[in-house]
Amino acid sequence: MVEVTLWGSLGAAAGGQSKLDIEAKDIRELFRKLSEQYPAFEPLIDRGIAVAIDGTIYRDTWSKELPPGAEIFLLPRLAGG
Amino acid sequence: MAGVAVSTTINGDHVEYLCQPDETLLEVLRDRLGLTGAKEGCGTGDCGACSVIVDDRLVCSCLVLGAEAEGRQIETIEGMAHGDQLHPLQQKFLEHAALQCGICTPGFLIAAKDLLAKNPDPTEEEIRFGLAGNLCRCTGYDKIVRAVQDAANVMKGA
Amino acid sequence: MNFDPRYSGRSFTSVGTRPIRPDGVDKVTGRARYGADFNMAGQLVGRILRSPHAHAIIRKIDTSKAEKLAGVKAVITAKDLPDLTDGDAAMYDILDNSMARTKALYDGHAVAAVAAIDARTARQALKLIEVDYEVLPHVTDVDEAMKHSAPLINDAIFTEGLEEKPVKPSNVTKRTQYGHGDVHQGFGEADFVVERSFKTEQTHQGYIEPHACVASVNPDGTADLWVCTQGHFVYRQHCAQLLGLEASKLRVTSSEIGGGFGGKTHVWAEPVALALSRKAGRPVKLVMTRDEVFRASGPTSATSIDVKIGAKKDGTITAAEATLRYSCGPYAGMWAEIGAMTAFACYKLENVKTVGYEVLVNRPKTAAYRAPSAPMAAFAVESAVDELAKEIGIDPVDFRIKNAAQEGTRASYGPVYGPIGIGPTLEAVKNHPHMKAPLGTNQGRGMACGFWFNFGGQTCTDLNIGMDGSVSLAVGTVDVGGSRASLSLVAAEELGIDYAHVKAIVADTSSLGYNDMTDGSRGTFSSSMATISAARNAIKILRERAAQMWDISVDDVAWEKGHAVAKGEKHGNLGKLSLKEIAAESGKTGGPIAGHSELVADGAGVSFATHICDIEVDPETGSTRVLRYTVVQDAGKAVHPTYVEGQYQGGAAQGIGWALNEEYIYGKDGRLQNPGFLDYRIPVCSDLPMIDTQILEIPNPNHPYGVRGVGETSIVPPLAAIANAVSNAVGVRMSHIPMSPPRILAALEAERERFSR
Amino acid sequence: MRYIRPQSMEDAVGLLAGAAGPAAILAGGSDLLVRMKGGFVEPELIVDIKAIAGLSDITETADGFRIGAAVPCAVLGENAALKKAWPGVVEAAKLIGSKQVQGRCTIVGNLCNASPAADSVPALVAAGAKAVVAGPGGKRTIAVESVPTGPGKTSLAKGEIIEAILLDKRPPHAGDAYQRFIPRTEMDIAVVSAGVNLTVGDNGVVKAARVAVGAAAPTVLLVEEAAQVLIGSKLDEATLERLAKICSGACRPIDDKRGTIEFRRKVAGVLAKRVAAIAYERAGGK
Known about the structure:
The structure holds 4 protein chains of 4 kinds.
Chain A: E1 2-5, E2 19-22, H1 27-37, H2 41-47, E3 49-53, E4 56-58, E5 72-76
Parallel strand pairs in A: 1-5
Antiparallel strand pairs in A: 1-2, 3-4, 3-5
Chain B: E1 4-10, E2 13-19, H1 25-32, E3 51-54, E4 57-60, E5 73-75, H2 88-95, H3 105-118, H4 124-130, H5 142-157
Parallel strand pairs in B: 1-5
Antiparallel strand pairs in B: 1-2, 3-4, 3-5
Chain C: H1 24-28, E1 44-50, E2 56-62, H2 64-68, E3 72-76, H3 89-98, E4 103-104, E5 110-116, H4 119-128, E6 130-135, H5 142-146, E7 172-180, H6 183-188, E8 192-200, E9 212-217, E10 223-227, H7 232-243, E11 250-254, H8 270-280, E12 284-287, H9 290-296, E13 303-311, E14 317-327, H10 335-342, E15 352-359, H11 374-392, H12 396-403, H13 422-430, E16 443-452, E17 457-465, E18 471-475, H14 483-495, E19 502-506, H15 523-550, E20 557-560, E21 563-566, E22 577-578, H16 579-584, H17 586-589, E23 593-601, E24 607-617, E25 624-634, H18 641-660, E26 691-696, H19 718-730, E27 736-737, H20 741-756
Parallel strand pairs in C: 1-12, 8-27, 10-11, 14-15, 18-19, 25-26
Antiparallel strand pairs in C: 1-5, 2-4, 2-6, 3-5, 7-15, 8-13, 9-10, 9-12, 13-14, 16-24, 17-18, 17-23, 20-21, 21-22, 24-25
């Protein structure tokens, strides 16, 4: 079980919650379960969500493991120059 | 529109071409003669990327008509090195990494060559004002100025 | 893939040296081929007709006269680019932007295009196209566009992110919010509160090379695209989707790129060139004029930002709040959101709240520009931070050091930081001789901090070892500023050979697997990781081949300094085998030796910089001169330090231009007044001093060599550093960027007026 | 479109006078080619005047200097005698565009382009320069300030060409100067500008003065009142302040992408002051 923190505007997709407890071992499973439990997440995941694990931002590595006790923070997937 | 027949000298070689009356020297060099070293950054004389030397005078080739080249001596970036021997400015631009994307580089080299021909020992300020007609968006000019300074030193010693 | 990206402290032989770049000679001799330097047999010239109106319904386009003109081979409108985006909103916007479908949404919006035998004929043909417009009211200012009375740009857009679902459409596409704690309570604890409003005008990346491509579509469904781009794989995806081509049948070759800075990260006119070629049945070359680049490529947002920061007498910030409004052109973006995320990222804050509003305006589609959205937010925040330091009576550097984020700090955008470099850059600035240099009359010194995220992403490289022992490295990230040199150094380092024996090229989309584009400061970070991985894979094969040559077990072969070395006492009599010797035998030991790598380079690590600027202001004219400029930034590990310095200097110069003179100026008619380098004033050589750099190396734990992206952060601090310097020079706080002479003079006059009363 | 390079002024005038469609004179081309590129002009005939004898020369005569219409501005800066006599005119000519543009552009072109912001024109007006006009009806010599009549418009008739600019021989103790305000240090069009030309007596008192302000009205302003303030003075602080005030007051500027009305007004005065001081020093005043 990991605790996932949602960025400000994302909370709306989870019915106004800012933190969720999800049973997931990696990012892929996290996204799958989020989509299952909160269908509003699915289009947002398609548009791009990044996951910060203990401060390091992962945009694409869906196989990245979510270590127990780690701080998991969801962020929008950004554009750069 | 009737074509204008032009006979001129480019990088020491005799060249003849036919161009339209409103065609610029830059268009002639790039599209008719395959000399694509001069670049079009603006087409209005504001960026210097198309710099060439016409009869010892530094100009933007986008502000010269192809027809005007009749009987002139034109120097372009393609003629700057002597065979496999780079011009000291070319060598110093490489050593100082005075280019990032490199699109402005041919224009800068031609302008710097003209500058050093007229002022072999320029101050930093003279270099900066001398090259103010050439825009570079990558380097902040720092390494370009240093490369020109270094090349001037090498050329003085030569 | 069993690649371990973690940092391992090691000493370097090649990395950290400063050799000449592999593409250098081509670039100083004029041989390097950029977007417009390529031609194909039978090629036509493509040109685009653009809307002169900021906002207009396209009632009808009559192309019949143009089609009849001798020499015209194709005329297209939006009908020739049918919507194949299948609900993908972002791609639909890109499609509509490349050719307006029902409405022209800004001055310069493409409405039709022609392909003709030469430029003159094409220009003539454009004049023969008749477009019937119904001109609509327009809005170009970000604050005006937010008003309820503003002309509506897209009546299908309802503001996202509001608590209650809006019933009316709006130019505000999205509200976003970041932060933590309770700012109300935080301000209650403050002894000093500074509250300011700021505006920044729209700027352009100003790359010297206009967008250019040659497109060739064949009747059998195959196609080629030669183009200047920051990401040819991304361009392939876009074009294949918009044209209905199979991605693998569209080969995109990235030319040398004459600057991008974010502006060449998605397609603009390329789908039009392909559609023209498809219709004409011939290759089409399409090169934008400078006027078109300014009017119809992707500048950055114009912004309007309110900032409020409170602190205790001892200099501890108790709360920080910002409202950020960013224009995005006529299509929804996420620019305000990025501004809201980055605004306070440099600081350790208990209570912070940022709100972003993304605002549609009748201006070109906003694109990324080097650390997009961060410079404007930093301008507002760092200006306010200086004001607050002044009110408290504390040195601005010490104030920032006291409140700087550090490992374990919760970032204002959410997560907790790992090891970061803001503190070290501030300490370096505090101790820098620049900070102690004397200043004259009307001169002032300012400093400011900046933050940027940095990206990684999908990356693929091929490393092939020739039979002569030389190495060719094919990468898929476009080289915008010397990365081929850096990646060659990395390959040389890993293989243990000399840099001179490595040649790096940027491969086309048919020669290499997918790569994300060169954006987010990811080029060298990501491709160096993939290069290390590819080299390690090659080394594995080299060891196997050496084992064969020696007829021993591969487990007994190690790789040291470019040589296979037999380990263990029983092999004591075996000499070393060099890479060259192994390569020479490769035909007999199993064929070509190569290493490949396909990976996602994540963990780029965030980046911080602190800049110092000295400026002189002429109080009679408002004219400014930058006297001295210093950049201090963390590079993790500088692979090719000269090119790292180049990134620092280039970003600073762009920031200086933005701060002082660059701006899009729109007339009341909604037309861009200054679409050229004469009146869109990027800095010239005589405007700038030397730009000093100090590279800090705080290793990135998520890269084998500790590398961090370096490309973007350097544009973030200059706006505020210069505003702070102006304030310290002549005592006026400039709240509107650019700080052009008329704005500074007006501020000085207002100040004099205030004092004379 | 035709491109013709006549060998004589008569031929050039004849071509222009006889042109059926729009015709353009090409010397340096730094304005013409930009306008052609932008589609603002589409001449049917381009008459390149650079092959006409004498048009590419600067000659020093008993009366002063004659600067041919095809002399690039860079060449003005290379003429030591001209630079010594008319440093303000030369520095104005050398401010136009970049080194590249100066290698092509001419002061006659700058004058005939009739931009209120033209750099060389306020200096020429302050210098009292004259233009030699050749046309179908013969030659005439006119004051340069009578050439531009408004933005992009001149008093020249069809078939007329300015073949040279005349500058007087300098009396002793004379000096001129020109400055413009631009946001950058180079590569800009003047936001506002000022040129001053002075003659000073042995006692350091200004005997004669001409003051011109550019980019502050539809054409360059010759500010008589400003000249009167300078005459009889030693350019003390109070005189300079009055000069600034008069020049600011004389401006009839517009708001545009390059500057505001207030800015132009204020800075016109500042520049006039600064330029007058330089001209005074060059005249040996101090």
